[in-house]
Amino acid sequence: MSQEALEGEIKALIVDALMLDDVTADEIESDAPLFIEGLGLDSIDALELAIAIDKTYGVRIDAEDEGTREVFRSVHNLARYVAEHRAAP
Length: 89
Known about the structure:
Blueprint: H1 3-17, H2 43-57, H3 68-71, H4 75-85
Helix pairs in contact: 1-2, 1-4
């Protein structure tokens, strides 16, 4: 799967998992910040998104890891992390 296709899937997952009524997947920019600025997500959203990513892709994101903040910085970073850590089909 291409990076672009995975980013599209993750954008849709964000909208669905977080039940965002005022945003569509197409409106989310891949490099835009997910927290504070950009989508304005919070720590509860991060937890819910991490659970959705684990269920969908089998990729665990450790909240205690120092790199977690960078993983959640943007859809682009999140997609790259998922691509690097998910099990091969």
